[in-house]
Amino acid sequence: MNRLIVQPGAALRGEIDLPGDKSISHRAALLAALAHGESRVDNFLDSGVTRAMLNCLSALGVDWQIQGNRLTLRGAAWQTPAGALDCGNSATTLRLLAGALAAVGIAAVLDGSEGLRRRPMGRIVQPLRQIGVPIHDGDRAPLMISPRPAEKRLSGGRLRLDVASAQVKSCLLLAGLAAGSPLTVIEPHRSRDHTERMLAAMGVHLSSGQNQDGWQVTLLPPDGALHPLDLRIPGDFSAAAFWIVAALITPGSRLALRGVGLNPGRTGLLAALLQMGARIQVQPRGEQGGEPLGDLWVEHSPLRGIEIGGEQVTAMIDEFPVFGVAAAFARGVSVVRGAAELRYKETDRIAALCRLVTALGGQAEAQPDGFTLRGCGGLPGGAVFDPAGDHRMAMAAAVAGLAAGQPVTVEQAQIIGESYPGFVQALASLGGDCRQEADPAA
């Protein structure tokens, strides 16, 4: 256990190279394990949640190694694991692995932390059962998948999702690799498409588009093996989000962020902040590993409140903790609707965000599917904040501490290592006044 104490008042200056994208790192490891041959993935994010994926792959008989930030992995026939696969605190690991295991056809039990066991899994269980996956009917981990004879293909067809979710969509597309006919997944609107881009690069034919039913993706099951990967992962936009907001709210700050992934399914926060009046310059730099990327220059800016709902919620679903911080430092009311999914993250992020803002002297009201923040241009107080095991809430609290009226202490700050192991060191290198200390209660 340790605490992170952030003192307000220090401007942030400099350039930062971001860690590899967490979502793409997850998918690269898993899809490389399904391919035949050796894959090489540079700028791989080595963190708590991606180690959960790699450790599960080890239990399935897959060999991998990490040197620096390069992951080398050789795909092989998966073995039935000796025990339950521990997905740790990573819902991405559990949901994507469920789809891959459904395609491979071996028996496995998927389990994880107490926090992961509280997260809803019926949204993958029901459609997997619909296409013939022998998985037990339940809404929480552990999930039990029975073996499937190699000659028995899964069903294709059309699967409609009630909520747009890249994790659920990816799970079903991975299962569709073993279908006997094309599989179509329909979402109310488009979610991030990292899985589709990577599968296409590995030789799988997919098509997608908008119609009257929503956004649909159709996968044609491949006849042969997936091609191995050779790619470099762009910088994580979700990691960049903390630095963007930190620079915007902290007087005197100016930051350059290099090689940021700019997948349009991920940059809803960027659009929201620009709408709020943020001074952000974007310089596109083409593509890397099939993903668009660019450089960002950000400087301290006065912000105004806005309203967010609909498709923009999906495009910034992981960034709402730090968006809430930006909204609290804006002037005017910010309203978020249609974001009930935030209730089912590592913690209830609607409740946690409102708790953070009110603890720092702001005004925040929770609704069932969102929240209202009444920004007054700043947060006058300080607080000791427990992120309740949520890495993004921990970093959002640290960012708020840079410009709050008094210091912010983040308890259980080691949870930040789940997605951004170098966050505290980067904060200090940019000029942030912060220190770590042992938690006296530990």
List the helices and strands and how they pair.
Elements lengths: L1 E6 L5 E5 L4 H13 L2 E6 L5 H12 L3 E5 L2 E6 L9 E2 L4 H14 L3 E4 L2 H4 L4 H9 L12 E3 L11 E4 L5 H10 L7 E5 L6 H8 L3 E7 L2 E7 L9 E3 L4 H13 L4 E8 L6 H8 L3 E10 L2 E9 L7 E2 L2 H5 L4 H10 L1 E6 L12 H11 L3 E5 L2 E7 L6 E3 L5 H11 L6 E3 L12 H7 L3 E6 L4
Parallel strand pairs: 2-14, 3-13, 6-7, 9-10, 17-18, 21-22
Antiparallel strand pairs: 1-22, 1-23, 3-5, 4-5, 7-8, 10-12, 11-12, 14-16, 15-16, 18-20, 19-20
Helix pairs in contact: 1-2, 1-3, 1-7, 2-3, 3-6, 5-6, 8-11, 8-13, 11-12, 11-13
From the N-terminal CA to the C-terminal CA, the straight-line distance is 6 Å
In which order are the strands of the major sheet placed? 21-22-1-23
Major sheet details: 4 strands, mixed
Tally of alpha and pi helices? 14
Helix fraction bin: 25-40%
The percentage of residues in β strands lies in: 25-35%
Mean pLDDT: 96
The counted number of beta strands is: 23
Global geometry: globular
- Radius of gyration over C-alpha positions, nearest whole angstrom: 21 Å
> Oligomeric state of the chains?
single chain
Structural class of the helix and strand makeup?
alpha/beta
The residue ranges in which pLDDT falls below 50 over 5 or more consecutive positions are none
